[in-house]
Amino acid sequence: GDSVTQMEGPVTLSEEAFLTINCTYTATGYPSLFWYVQYPGEGLQLLLKATKADDKGSNKGFEATYRKETTSFHLEKGSVQVSDSAVYFCALSPQAGTALIFGKGTTLSVSS
Amino acid sequence: GAGVSQSPSNKVTEKGKDVELRCDPISGHTALYWYRQSLGQGLEFLIYFQGNSAPDKSGLPSDRFSAERTGGSVSTLTIQRTQQEDSAVYLCASSLGQTKNEKLFFGSGTQLSVL
To answer: Looking at CA atoms only, how far is residue B15 from chain A in angstroms?
Structure first.
């Protein structure tokens, strides 16, 4: 069945470092791909999404490109801030009328 | 309402007791989802509603778990004869339920502790 695999954390970085969180997926069709973020003490919220191959989603300095050839949707940010410390979840939506499938989450900790 | 509302926010119960968790989705959202979040396990899908029907309940871990949705709005997740391994944060989310590109809106969750 459809699934999402993301790199295990925790990821610990210094402020202004470059961030990559890897995410790969398995899907039979043409899913939409998402990154959700959970800040400490807050609920899950959408960070960015891409709905077809080669689309790039971006928000708050984060980017991810939908790569069908490598079945990947890696999250990147050029310069992280302490406020980016959170748990990041990669997810896919196989088709309308089905539930979102999430990866296990990657904890990011940024220190000043 | 303004967002997805879940109650209670915290629930402590004794092993063997039944619990009910409530979710009030955003008005007009036809799709409603229940997930479970455990340490080290990420987000585990439990059940999905479209209106009052549940086309996918494949994630319910055992027959002790059940859920219903009435009036296309409020949903209740019931866990019977709770076990310690049921301890987790139970998250509810809702969406418009029309396309696969939609954003899910999550509630703050119910932290369930089974002693």
So the answer is: 27
What is the C-alpha separation between B45 and B33, in angstroms, rounded?
8
Cα B102 from Cα B108, distance rounded (Å): 19
Task: Compute the half-sphere exposure of residue B114: CA atoms within 13 Å on the CB side of its CA.
Answer: 17
Structural tokens at position B92: 């509810």
How far is B37 from B111, CA to CA, in rounded Å?
A: 9
Separation of alpha carbons B81 and B14, rounded Å? 9
For residue B108, the chain A residues in CB contact (below 8 A) are 42-43
Instruction: Find the length of chain B.
Output: 115
User: Cβ contact (<8 Å) for A43 and B109?
Assistant: yes
Could you read off the pLDDT tens digit of each residue along chain A, which spans 112 residues? 889 999 888 999 999 999 999 999 999 888 999 999 999 988 899 999 999 999 999 999 999 999 999 999 999 999 999 999 999 999 999 887 788 999 999 999 999 9
In B, residues 3-62, which contact A (CB 8 Å cutoff)?
33, 35, 40-43, 45, 48, 50, 55-56, 59
Q: A16 in the Ramachandran plot: left (φ > 0), alpha (ψ -120 to 50) or beta?
A: left
Cβ neighbours, 10 Å, residue A48: 19
Question: Of A49, A51, A89, which is closest to B42 when you measure between CB atoms?
Answer: A89
pLDDT at B100: 76
Residue A84 backbone phi and psi in degrees, to 5: -85, -5
B33–A99 C-beta distance less than 8 A: yes
